[in-house]
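Thread: Modeling a multi-component assembly for a lab meeting

Hi all, long-time lurker, first post. My supervisor asked me to bring a structural picture of a complex we are working on to next week's group meeting, and I have zero experience with this. I have the sequence lines for every component (675 residues in total). Could someone generate the structure of the whole assembly? Inputs are pasted exactly as I received them:
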Amino acid sequence: MKKKKSFLEFVSDNTFIHILLSIILGFLVGAIFLVVMRLSVGEAYGRLFHSVSNVKGITYVIVYSVPYIVAGLSVAFSFKTGVFNIGAEGQFVVGSMAAAIVGIRFGTLPRPVLVILCFLVAMLAGAVWGIIVAFLKTKWGINEVLSMIMFNWIAFYLSNFLAGRPGIKSEGSAEATANISENATLLFSKDFIKKMGFAPTANGGIFIAIVIMIVIWIVIEKTTLGYRLKAVGFNKYAAEYGGINVNKSIMTALAISGALAGLAGALQLMGMGGRISIFSSQEGFGFAGIVVALIGCSNPFGVFIAGLFYGWLMYGGSKLNLVGAPTQLINVIVGTVVFFIAISVIFANLKYLVKSKPGQK
Amino acid sequence: MDNFLNNFGIILYATLVYATPLLYAGLGSCFSEVSGVVNIGIEGMMTAGAFTGTVIAYFTGNPWLGFLCGGLAGAVFGMLHAVATVILGADQTIAGTAINMLGPGIVIMIAKVLFDSTDTIPLTATQKIPQLFSGVFGTGTAFGRFMNNVFATYASTYLVFIAVIIVWFVFYKTRFGLRMRACGEHPMACETLGINVIATRFFCVCMSGFLAGLGGACVTMTISTQFRPISIVGQGFIAIAAVIFGKFRPQGALVGCLLFGFCSGLKVVLGGSSGFNMHLISMIPYIVTVIVLILFVGKSHVPAANGKPYVKSR
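Re: Modeling a multi-component assembly
Sure thing. I ran the full set together rather than chain by chain. Output:
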């Protein structure tokens, strides 16, 4: 007979509850900081929640979330296949730049063609960036974390360099690329946005994110390719013994992960910015992707929700200085959430508080 | 010739100045990785150290106190990482990512409260870490000027070279070092021999935080004079890269850090003259690293138990 679980056992065994608890604790720690800084907790958090109280706010959050969701899916995919894609940042940047170049230079193409072309070159650029690292690893045994960090910076400076080239740089004095052609953007028509009361940057990126989420889920869970990649992730020696080409798997995994990160870059550009600035430091979308993947437990659906959550905090956080609270509060909250997810073993052990003997069921 | 000597001196000087923070952080990374704990939180720990160092130096006027407090601030975050990874057996990458968000998040919030800005107020010359041999050599000859350029480095640079020797000695010539390295290779075997794996790793991770904090303080107390949110950005990861480059050995990390420092130095000198694109020059260190890895270094031996949480069996 199945024993009914006690409440504590339910909490201990449910990953979703662990994440929920982590999020609550994150806000709690954020509140403590606010109190120490003599700021009103109610006002600051009120502002965060108020930011999604209307259609405009909600669409803003969705728009913000798209690149985080897709970057998160990229990192989650790499986690599933046993590689830690800390290079998502660089892949995001090259993807974004590739899309920008196509979007600027081939602006006269009809919209559907141009949009798909931008997506493809962005994915190709990201995939190439990932494959280089995989190649260095499989051919010469070079530590992938090290080469990814290098390629993040190479991508960063390459993007800055290209953004300043004639033909790509903006005509004006702005330290940025020219705006991509309107045919390359994903923005809804102005009338539609106005009629619906959406945010001015409302765009179709979210539908792409949903499609990608479903595709990735299918690839990981329902295909032989996904099975093979996961097998390598679990135990590469066992996988090799089972007849799987490990090197090829690592290449494939990083190519797919890189393509996704590149696509995330294109979505950010074509949905939000429309141009790429010459930056003084890395923007961190790829690193945010790591956080989103972690909060979403590397599960595609989880990552989708986590991306929305992250997008909300980023959008809501940008409103925080209106009430005198520093935007950095968001980093503290998210950092705490991730920290508690890391040590979620403490939640899993809650049930032992009552039954004092650990290990006994 | 004079001009060459002058430029050469400046490049050497810049190499040393830029390599110093990386080297502190790199030594820290060595401690953690060799004992079997992946620490990608170095970046966050450096940021904490950078802020704390400048703030304490600013308020007390004593750079050395600031420097030390910078290290301690890093150690606090190191301890946080140690509690999560060593005691609670958390995933080391996740915990490190959390530290990288918490470190900058918390210090920039404090900066907002203290200075009503995300930047700190610039340090005066006496609040910075002193330059020991500035102007000791006569400026009359070209060689004298060269020596002056090179030896104008900050006291922290001399200290870090001593630190490399000490860390090397601890790693390879002491009983503790042997035990520590063993913990990174086969913690279970260590436990059966009576080595306290948990305590050893806990100490090593705290130590890595302390050194990373010193490295961060170096950035804001020598290269620049104030803490800004982008003071550290990326340097923690570069330090980790230098350590992997150096095959997780302090002497190897020294080479890696000097390489990155040299490229930064080259950037400073070449950046002054026109005709070079800054962005392309900035790319050099990273491309050079990859090429050097392909040609000379190859596979690095990662400590066998690196990244695997050690949970004591009950």
